[in-house]
Amino acid sequence: MRTGLARDLGIGLLCLVALLALPVLFPHPSLRDFLIYVIAYGLLAMSLNLLVGLTGLVSFGHAAYFASGAYVFGLLMQGGAVSIPVAMLAAVGGTALLALVIGAICVRLKEIYFSFITLAFQMFIHSIILTWVELTGGDQGLRGGIPRPPFLGIDLGEAGTLYGFCAVVFVLCLLVMRQVWQSPFGYTLRMIRDNPARANFLGVDVVRMKLGVFVLAGIMASVAGIIMALFVSGAFPEFGFWTTSGEAIFMIMLGGTQVFLGPVIGAFLLQLLNHYVTIWTHHHGLVLGIVILAIVLGLRRGVADYAAAWLAERRAASRPAAVPGPAETPAPAETKAVG
Amino acid sequence: MLSVENLHKSFGGVQATRDVTLDFPAGSLTAIIGPNGAGKTTFFNLISGHVRPDSGRVVFDGADVVGLSSLEIVRRGMARAFQVASLFPSLTVREALTAAVTAHQRRSWSLLSRFPLGQSRARVEELLELLGLAPKADLVSSSLSHGDQKLLDIGLALAMDPKVLLLDEPTAGMGPDERWRMIEKVHHLWQARRLTMVFIEHDMDIVFKYAQAVHVLKYGAVLAQGTPAEIRRNQDVIDAYLGTDHHLAVATGEVPA
């Protein structure tokens, strides 16, 4: 619907303005760094949530595409033959191809088997990065920095411009994912999440749909990797290690899977926690663990999901009993066979 | 429209379907009855391509569909509703029907447009009216009553605009009054859409009142087939299934509204 699209574009524009205004209003360099981390990891978590929250596919190996985006981009820029936009497109395209090949194998498996094979592929890619030292620099990562030659009058060597560029790319990616989320494709993915067998009986090609969203999620993760590579001016094996995938899952759990922007909120909260907890104690892993436990056991869902449910409840309570209607008895959990 | 010839299927040592040959003419309303474990649901699984038969033919709309995937068979126009309603719990009634209609219209891959598509709207409203679910269109599927869940399950199948609709116990888990309301609705759908309908049912009163033809399965084999009147008099069926207490007398009597 046109109105939905206009609303999303409006909200996207507001987000962009807010992101661009924040560092101007509070001109502290560490705020900009903090926000770029939120942007890169938020995008990674958002892309993973296309699989987890929208399709019900829990991938443990999503950081593979984050790393692939960062490395392909970094290597092309170090090669010096192409401009930044071309290297970005190539990194995204290369990652899409990688996700297509890996996804074609993974999406045939279900549930925990899917999770583990994605993890296995990620470890495979991680060990390629570690062992192919001449190309990737092994455990040292891509050293020597990533050159950022100006293009179309944009000089990403300047910190403020780099931040603005990342913010724009981030919001564009959010808008693309929002479109996916609200499209017939997105609703078909919800069918698959809720009941894949039934979706199949309604003529949905479940395997191909899953592969489609797997590639899309990989593409979005590669953009997050490119932003990270641009920001830290390098690429490191940790980008493709399982802990990076784990962190993205943490963010999703913290923020919520069902509210569209939940994962970004999770990324923000996790970075905030990381930032403040590390100032106060060396045992930040312990503190993070306790916070995650409190949210998982206490709220039983991410913060944004919890807030959305709470708001919906309040709205329902404040609405006068407008629909009197006969009270329906809820369905029995188990239907008895009539014999 | 649909016929099966010499269909066989065994699971390990159990012969779930043995030499079943049945015909379902276009526009017919056929009941399949049989004691528990007679292979009724397996029979549905075989013709819908969910389970592959060991031998035999399933001719649907003029073509042998044995060996085709369930997806291909669905796309040829065979839809199915389930004994335990198989829904999309987190979607609302309207969303679920719209997504199903969208799948039928082959627009599931549409990435650049917004849900719901304009072209699905009329069809969805028509289905909501037909099912009587319009007042509950914006409720989440999992919050519906049992009967409404069963209706929505059938509605999802109807969204496919099927040529053949297989209903696995449409009245399962319902009280007596609710059952009659349900089967009347099913009967109404059949009349309204003129599709070929096959339903599994345990309630003999319902079977004898509504079915045009009755196929009786026992231990995976066809015990009898015929019109309700013929089946009612069939000694094999009485011995094996209906019993001698002549609960059949009820079927000829008054039917609760």
TrEMBL record, chain A:
Membrane-spanning intervals of the chain: 9-28, 34-52, 57-76, 82-105, 112-133, 162-181, 211-236, 248-273, 285-303
GO molecular function: branched-chain amino acid transmembrane transporter activity
Name of the featured protein: Branched-chain amino acid ABC transporter permease
UniProt xrefs under InterPro entries: ABC_transp_permease, LivM-like
PANTHER family to which the protein is assigned, alphabetical: ABC TRANSPORTER ATP-BINDING PROTEIN, HIGH-AFFINITY BRANCHED-CHAIN AMINO ACID TRANSPORT SYSTEM PERMEASE
Keywords assigned: Cell membrane, Membrane, Transmembrane, Transmembrane helix
Topological type in the membrane: Multi-pass membrane protein
Native source organism of the sequence: Teichococcus rhizosphaerae
Keyword Chaperone set for record: no
One Pfam family linked to the record: BPD_transp_2
Keyword Nucleus attributed: no
Compartments where found: Cell membrane
Any one of the GO CC terms: plasma membrane
UniProtKB/TrEMBL annotation, chain B:
Keyword check for Metal-binding: no
Signal peptide positions (record): none
Single GO MF descriptor: L-phenylalanine transmembrane transporter activity
GO BP term, example: L-valine import across plasma membrane
Keywords (A to Z) from UniProt: ATP-binding, Nucleotide-binding, Transport
Highest taxon above the source species: Bacteria
Entry protein name: ABC transporter ATP-binding protein
Cellular-component GO terms for this entry: plasma membrane
InterPro entries to which the protein is assigned, alphabetical: AAA+_ATPase (IPR003593), ABC_AA/LPS_Transport (IPR051120), ABC_transporter-like_ATP-bd (IPR003439), ABC_transporter-like_CS (IPR017871), BCA_ABC_TP_C (IPR032823), P-loop_NTPase (IPR027417)
Keyword presence, Repeat: no
PROSITE patterns noted in UniProt: ABC_TRANSPORTER_1, ABC_TRANSPORTER_2
CDD domains cross-referenced by the UniProt entry: ABC_Mj1267_LivG_branched
Domain ABC transporter: 2-244
